[in-house]
Specification:
Blueprint: H1 2-7, E1 10-14, H2 17-27, E2 31-32, E3 36-38, E4 42-46, H3 57-60, H4 73-89
Parallel strand pairs: 1-4
Antiparallel strand pairs: 2-3, 3-4
InterPro entries: Topo_IA_core_domain (IPR023405)
Protein name: DNA topoisomerase
Keywords: Membrane, Transmembrane, Transmembrane helix
């Protein structure tokens, strides 16, 4: 398993192509393809637009239309949702 991990590349997902180009330059990626830029250890790709959008608390749960700091569990809920999105994007490869 250690050998397999050693061969894996890291995926870098940028918000837009211009940011991806900057990241790729810093990471030494020179193999430019139509939808990504690659190096031996990295693949840099991009989305078009915001990757994450913040919603109002009541969009997550109608009971949160009014809340106070003691009910800050929303933050935990949002973090769990974002974590699920990122795990989906990278194919559940986090260990």
């Amino acid at each position: 398993m250690k050998d397999v991990i050693h061969l894996m590349k890291s995926l870098v997902l940028a918000e837009k192509p211009s940011v991806a180009c900057d990241l790729a330059r810093v990471l030494g990626c020179t193999n430019k393809q139509k939808h990504f830029i690659e190096a031996p250890k990295y693949i840099v790709t991009w989305a078009l637009g915001h990757l994450i959008d913040i919603k109002m608390p009541e969009d997550y749960d109608p009971r949160l239309i009014s809340w106070n700091y003691e009910e800050i569990l929303l933050i935990r809920y949002v973090i769990l949702c974002i974590n699920k999105i990122f795990l989906f994007i990278i194919g559940n490869q986090l260990n």
